[in-house]
Amino acid sequence: MKNKQNHDAKTTKWMSCPNVNTEFPGLAFICILEELCIVKRKDSLHDLIGTKGISYTILNKDGEKVFLATQETACEKFKLKIFNYYGNEVITVKKQYSFCQNKLFVWAPPDNFLGTVHQSKFAKRKLLVQNKSQKLIFTIDKQGLCKDELKLQEKSIGLINIFKNSSTIQLCFPIEMEIEQKTILLAACFLLDYIKL
After folding, report:
1. Contacts (Cβ under 8 Å, ≥6 apart) of 132
2. Residue 47: which H helix or E strand, with range?
3. What structural domains and CATH numbers belong to the chain?
4. Which of 5, 29, 140, 148 is the most exposed place for a label (fewest CB within 10 A)?
């Protein structure tokens, strides 16, 4: 990603909505992307949204805003809402309280269930990504202190880099990946940050 993430939020422009045919119009932005960057940073639109909690700005590799997100956390659970330029909620992510497992559920739009991400019971440094039919589609394997590898049938297809000093997460995936899968992987980044693998 180009070095634009330190720009003031008010001067960072929004990405233009691509002209693509998708059944998820609120997610059209990520159809043509192969990289997203999640930054803990408040934007002026967060105040208009009016949701309390941690504020995030989600950027493309050119430093343009794609989405805004807010996360409310309480008692080992959290709810994440992701909004577009118009202030519409396009993705909802929920982590319920669980004593023995970290698991989140993803909807996009908010009433359309897409899938889950959860920590493996047998390998705590691995996350399992499933679609709405509970079919395993990816694994996320910890490769080091700050790097996580996306795998499809044990073959590497992307990376998640967590830059702890700058509160930034970089997600890279194939541009041709299905939009539902990109959305679930975006949600997975927040679980990785939450559980601090």
Report:
1. 113, 114, 115
2. helix 44-49
3. 9-195 (2.40.160.200)
4. 5
State how far the Cα of 35 lies from the Cα of 51, in Å rounded to an integer. 26
**What mean pLDDT, rounded, does the chain reach?**
87
Instruction: Provide the 8-state DSSP code for 14.
Output: B
DSSP 168: E
Largest CA distance in the chain: 46
CA distances 188 to 9, 144, 171, Å, are 24, 17, 10
Residue 10 has pLDDT above 80, yes or no: no
CA pseudo-torsion sign 58, 60, 62, 68: negative
DSSP label at 26? G
The SS3 of residue 161 is: strand
Mean pLDDT of 47-55: 80
Distance separating alpha carbons of residues 139 and 153, to the nearest angstrom: 8
Give the residue, 160 or 147, on which the prediction is more confident.
160
Which CA distances in Å does 93 have to 7, 115, 164, 183? 27, 10, 22, 10
In this prediction, residues 73-78 reach a mean pLDDT of 87
- Decide: 40 and 58 in contact? Cβ < 8 Å: no
Backbone angles phi, psi at 137, to 5 degrees: -110, -30
